[in-house]
Predict the structure.
Amino acid sequence: MTLAATMATVGAVAMPASATPPGIPSKATAQSQLNALTVAAQGSTSGYSRDLFPHWSTVSGSCNTRETVLKRDGSSVTTDSACAATAGQWYSPYDGATWTAASDVDIDHVVPLAEAWRSGANSWTTSRRKSFANDLTRPQLIAVTDNVNQAKGDQDPSTWQPSIGSYRCTYAKMWIAVKSYWGLTLQATEKSALQTTLDTCTA
């Protein structure tokens, strides 16, 4: 059984796919993590390349990270022998759209690769950058509408947040958790935007 299948099955009892990335902290935990993050001027993008963050990695069998997240975040997802999603339904919490074709869905790096590079990942080994780009344990990967992901680009929360206002609290907590775990810095404007959003969270 693939990891993706295992994630959707507990004790042979089929479970609905979780549309929520793992490891999203509570408001209190996110606040503690935000307080502990180092504020620093944004680094340069000089030398950056997506190729320095190898993705998508094989997770199990023929299933890679993208396919695993599609399975996790979708509902009624079916795959072919190569693990490619052939059917399913995906709800994008960033913009509220629902898609039935995997080709309309991107896997967003919540903290973009270029943003990570400017925040300290430029000094990492390629192995560490690979782990970051394929992180299924933290809330770093999420299935969303492809053009929304492309519009976000490498922006931080001071210049881009989900258009669905009710999801911004969750997004801020995910961003903080990822930067905290990976020891990345943040800019003053980024911290201010995150704090403003966190103040709206109820839990």
